[in-house]
Fold these 3 entries.
Entry 1:
Amino acid sequence: QPGILGNSLRSDLRLNDINIKSKLKDSPPPRVEIISPTAGEHFDHREIDVVAKITDEGGGLDEVKLLHNGKRLPGHDRMARTKPKPGKSVFHHYPIELVPGKNVISISAFSEERIESEATQRELFVDGVHDDITCHVMAIGINKYKNPNLDLNYV
C-alpha cells in the first residue's frame, strides 16, 4: 500500500511529541555543573580530581556519564552513592588521568526515566609532561621471488 510508512509516521509524531513533553514535565533531567577544575586551566601533572555538582530537578538521578576526549570513562555509570532529594545537590569527585596537551572533560547525568541532561564541558591543558617516544622500524625488502612475475622492478 503506497504511503503507509509516511502515514504511520505522521500519526506517531504527534503522540511522540506529547509523550516527550509529558516525560520532560514528569521527570526532568538533572542539572550538572563542573565545580573544579576551571575552564582553560593548565596543569603540570596528569592526575586531577574533577568535582561535579549534580542537582536533582525532580526526575531523580540514575546515571552519570563522564567523557574524556570523547571517550566514556568506565566505573562512573550507575549512581551507587547517595541520591539527592528533588531540588537538592550532591557533589561527586572523579579522578582522571589527563594526556599531554588539550583535554576535554564532559559530564552529563540521566534522570530515573533515562532523560539525559545537557552536557557540561571543560577544556584543560597539560603542559610540560611529554613521554619520550621511540619508534623502531625494521624493514626487509625482497627483490627476487621463486615466481618471476612477483619480482620487484623498482627496488
Entry 2:
Amino acid sequence: VAFFFDLVLSWNTGISFGLLAGNPEMGRWLFVGVAAAIVVFLLLWLARVGRGILGLAIPLIAGGAVGNVIDRVRFGAVVDFLYFHVRTRSGNEAGFPAFNVADSGICIGVGLMFLLGICPQLVMKLINPTVNGLVERLNLLLFAGGLKFGPLFSQ
C-alpha cells in the first residue's frame, strides 16, 4: 500500500505476539476464557466510571478484546493484517508484528489509562477540551435530526 505499510494476512494462533502458538487449541480457549472474564470486569468498571478518560479507555479495551475473541472462536486464530515496516540502507526489512484494529483499540485504551495514571492533570488539560469539542461539533451536525450527545468528560 505504501513504502512503510502493507496489508497482509497473518493468522495469530498464539496469544500476544504468538505466545502459546505451539499449542493453538490450548491458547485458543485460554484466551477466550481470560478475555471474556476481562470484558465482564471492564463492563462492570465502566458502569461505575461512566464518563471521563476511563469512560473512553475502557470501551476501547473491551471492544478490542471482544473483536479478538470473535476471531478466535470463529477462525481458531486472530486475523492480523496491518503491517508497518521500514527498509534499512542495507536492504533488510525491520517491522512491527502485524496487528489488527482490535489490537489498536486495546493499545490506545491502555495508553490512555497509563497516561491518566502518570500525569492525570496533563491528560485532563489536553484531552478533555479536544474530545468535548468534538462532541459539541457532533451535536451541531446531528441537532437537526433530533439527536443529542452529552459531554464525555465532566469538568
Entry 3:
Amino acid sequence: NEWNASQWDATVFRQLHRHWALLTAGSIAHYNAMTINWGGFGTLWQKPTVTVYVKPVRYTHDYMMEQEYFSVSFFPERYHQDPADNDKLSQTSLTPEQWGSAVVYREASLALVCRKIYSLPMAAQGIPQEIAAQYYKTDAPHTIFFGEVLTILQS
C-alpha cells in the first residue's frame, strides 16, 4: 500500500525509540544504510517531515550530505537485533529495491521515502555538559537532517 503522509496515524514516539529503523541514502547501485533510533516526525514549512541525526564519523553521513533523497524503513520484530551489534545489516537477508530516487527494502513493514530539505550540524557549545560527556567524548556532535516525507509504503 502507498499513501500520502497526511494519512499516517501512528504513535510516533514509539516508532524510533522502541523499534529501530534503517536509514538509507544513495542509489541501488551505490548506497549505505545505518540503524537509527533517534529522530522525530513533524511538520516544517507546512510539509510532513522526518528528522534524523547522524554523526559525521558514520559512513552514512557522507551519503546523507551528498544525496537529495533518503529513506527510513521499519521492520517486523523478526528482523530486530541487539542494538549493540555494530553491523546489523550484514546479519540480515534484506532485499534492497529502488523506489523513485531512494532505496527501500522489500521486507520493511513501513518505509518513508524522503527528500532532504535541510541539514544542520549540532553546535557543541549548545549541548548540556552531561549530554556531551555521555555522547560526544570523542566524536563530533550529530548532523540533523530534515526530510520531506514524499511517500509512505506499507506492506
